[in-house]
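[step 3/7] fold_predict: job queued, chain A
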Amino acid sequence: MSSSYLCFAIFMSLALVAAIASATDYGGYGPRPDPNLVKPNLNKEKTLSAMIGVQGLVYCRSGPKRFPLQGAVVRITCLANDGSGYEAAPFSFLSEATDAKGYFFATLSPYEMQDNRRIKECKAFLEESPLETCNVPTDAKQGITGALLASYHYLSDKKMKLFTVGPFVYSSAPSSGSNY
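[step 4/7] structure written:
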């Protein structure tokens, strides 16, 4: 009688192993996942959860002198992924015109983001100068190539990530004697 119990126990063990194997076989659809494969954490890169603020200064350099440029505008361009993780079209927003001290400020609210976009990176560029005599952008502090928004201060009272770039510089128009 003990041999029949032994046969029954072996049979049940094999049936249990077969049931577990068939349950993890994914029904025969495709290969089993590699247990050593690291899965990407798509939730790691969260949608913009705080307001973004970008600040800086814009100057005009005329000869050896440099002075704050009032009325200049800075453009912030961002690369983002859509809600499915695919790269979305870049988007831009503009700062308010600089004040008398050349100070600019721009904001982007999470509510302004479209299609659950997730920002990957942003850069700030010189966009517009109000002076005809000082409207040639320079690449000082990457004013032409784009200053990467890399580090920020978190303003908890405003729930804002505040980035600082620049100072950016416009210069006088190139002389008419340049080579063309």
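[step 5/7] annotate
The mean pLDDT is 79.
The chain is about 10% helix and 35% strand.
exit 0
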